[in-house]
Design brief:
alpha/beta, Rossmann fold, 8 helices, 7 strands, binds NADPH dihydro-nicotinamide-adenine-dinucleotide phosphate, SDR family oxidoreductase
């Protein structure tokens, strides 16, 4: 009997922003493949019940609560995880925020905050994870990009700037890290039913537009991204780096 594909037994995966939404679905999927998964969010009261639910399902789960905007706290948490588990194999830089406002009214301080959370903090924390990976000669770094960086949409100027930069960064990081055993890729999800998109889900006009524009004819779910996260995180995907993988029901492929 051969070994199964995408087996993550013995590996440690850190997923930021995994108390709900895309991060939670990714964490559950990675743990389901045998990884020990470290959950993250800002609030222990949100993260700890999720940890307990996953443990009740027999999954190996640890917790590291930090705000990604506090980069020193986040990098210290990664050092603690490295010391506790002896390895960080997979780092999914997934925590993110959005602020919707028309371009001509978008406040610069808000632009800078969204850019910091979605880009600068991701860059700094994932880079720290990469240091631990390079030291062991193996790692998988995954950012959450967005289809908003692939097509122009209204009201998301800061979010788009940050996600577009992440798409560019994976190419640049791959050039520096591929020969160190570390792959760097991004997911570009389409519109996914989570708290982040609640206002859009409640907007009947947007809902109708999305269903019509998406060949699959529906919103995505966090679970729709889980298989892509497992694949990119696997040892078998070691020759894939510097890529942005779009998972959007065909939205950006359609005319
Ligand atoms: P949710 O709002 O459902 O979840 C966001 C998660 O991130 C929560 O666990 C939240 O926990 C955590 N989080 C938010 N801010 C911080 C912070 N400063 N520090 C640490 N954790 C934080 O969002 P989604 O699951 O939809 O989004 C996840 C990622 O996917 C984001 O990067 C988003 O931009 C991206 N994305 C989402 C799409 C969608 O349609 N939903 C489409 C394309 C990309 P808590 O608030 O408790 O801290």
């Amino acid at each position: 009997m051969g070994t199964s594909l995408f087996d993550l037994a013995g590996q440690v995966a850190v997923v930021t922003g995994s108390s709900r939404g895309i991060g939670l679905a990714a964490a559950r999927a990675l743990a389901g493949q045998g990884a020990t998964v470290v959950l993250n969010g800002r609030r222990p009261e949100a993260v700890l019940p999720v940890r307990d639910a996953l443990r009740a399902d027999g999954l190996a789960v640890d917790v590291a609560c930090f705000d990604v905007n506090d980069v020193p706290a986040a990098t210290a948490a990664l050092d603690e995880l490295q010391a506790r588990h002896g390895r960080i194999d997979i780092f999914f830089a997934n925590a993110g925020i959005n602020h919707r406002a028309p371009l001509l009214e978008f406040e610069q301080p808000v632009f800078e905050q969204v850019l910091f959370t979605n880009l600068t903090a991701q860059w700094a924390i994932a880079r720290h994870a990469a240091r631990h990976m390079v030291a062991r000669g193996h790692g998988r770094i995954l950012f959450t990009g967005s289809v908003t960086a692939l097509r122009g949409r209204r009201n998301v100027t800061a979010y788009t700037a940050a996600k577009g930069a992440l798409h560019a960064l994976v190419r640049q990081w791959s050039a520096e890290l591929a020969d160190r055993g570390v792959t760097v890729n991004a997911l570009a999800p389409g519109y996914i039913r989570t708290e982040l998109t609640q206002a859009l889900q409640d907007d009947a006009e947007f809902d109708a537009w999305l269903r019509a524009a998406t060949p699959a004819g529906r919103w995505g779910t966090p679970q729709d991204l889980a298989a892509a996260v497992v694949f990119i995180s696997s040892r078998e995907a070691g020759f894939m780096t510097g890529q942005v993988l779009t998972v959007d029901g065909g939205l950006t492929a359609a005319l």
